[in-house]
Structure formats: C-alpha cells, structure tokens
Write a structure and sequence with these properties.
heterodimer, A: 116 residues, mainly beta, 11 strands, B: mainly beta, 0% helix, 50% strand
Amino acid sequence: QVQLQESGPGLVNPSETLSLTCTVSGGSITNSYWTWVRQPPGKGLESLGYISYSGSANYNPSLKSRVTISMDTSKNQFSLRLSSVTAADTAVYYCARGQQTHIDYWGQGTLVTVSS
Amino acid sequence: DIQMTQSPSSLSASVGDRVTITCRASQSIGNYLSWYQHKPGKAPRTLIYVASSLQSGVPSRFSGSGSGTDFTLTISSLQPEDFATYYCQQSYSHPATFGQGTRLEIK
C-alpha cells in the first residue's frame, strides 16, 4: 500500500517561498507520476503540476514561473516550491501519486497559511 | 485549459436514494475522466477512473459512465458514509482540471 505524507511549514510570510516535501512509502518514486494539488479555504481542487518517474516536470500555467516540483530518489521524496506567495496561496496542499489517467493515492494534506 | 462543469452544485438526499451527478467538459476528453470523494479534513478518495473503472476497494454502489464531453457518477443506494463533496477531473490534457464540486448533503 502506497502512503504519502506531506511536511513543511504551516505559516509562510507574504512574498516568500512556500516549500513542502512529500515522503512516499510502500512504493518507489521512480515509478509513476507524482503531483501536487491544493484546495484554498471554501474552494475546489486545483492541480499545481506533476513530476514524472524520469524527473521531467510540468506545471499549471496559471502559476506561471512561481512553481517548481523536484524529486530526491535517494530519500523517496518529492517536493514543491512556490515562490512570491500571497494570501491567495493559502490552502491545504496535497501530494498524490498519479497514473496516466488518474490519481490513485493521496496524502492527508497540510494547511499552509500565508500571513505576516 | 479544459473547463469541467458539474451539476448540481449541491444536492440533498436520503439514505437509500439513488443519486446521479453530472460532469461536462468544455471539449472532448475521450474517457480521461475520474471521480473523487472528499470529506472535510480528510484526503480525497479516488472512486472512478477512465470514466467507468472502479478503483480498488470502492463499493460497487458507485458507478461511472460517459465519454466525450458528458459524464455521470451514480450512487445506487446512498449510505451514511457517502455524504461528502464529489469532484470530477479530466486528465486528457495538461493541466488536469477539476470540476467545482458537488456537495451531497443529508435530507
């Protein structure tokens, strides 16, 4: 059974960089695709991007150049960095495993609040 | 981006009811459509993928159908644990996009 766990600061100052890590157990990140999804308070789900098993990343154009997803195969982890954050980036952030057609495993999610 | 529109946005139903939620894509997405169940404070749960395939461990009262632009999620007999918000998602083209959600409430 694949399990994912997000970790990182729960509070980030405006204009700074949000950094989260997802630790994967029960499976290797050198298989499948790995993605980040967020849910702002009271709103729906938004896909931020994904990284493939080969390390190639694709991002949601709505985030322009602010987002970076990377992976560390030695730790079986992948990470999210979102720069120049504003209050609009306050959300629950989920890491997840994707197949070509769908997400099959989700982390529990972590709330990140952008505030000074 | 492909826009996904769900209807209704909210729905009240009783235990034992048959419920159908609709998802419409702004362009054809073949069968690259998934359904997820989400409860507050919990991780989303994958229910259906490629429009009609049941994710392992999901009860058979959940079913999906459709192709092209119009899709449905049906719950044949609502159980108390099914009251949640449901989202569709297309994975036909990048970025993957979700519907706005359908909140299923107890009548």
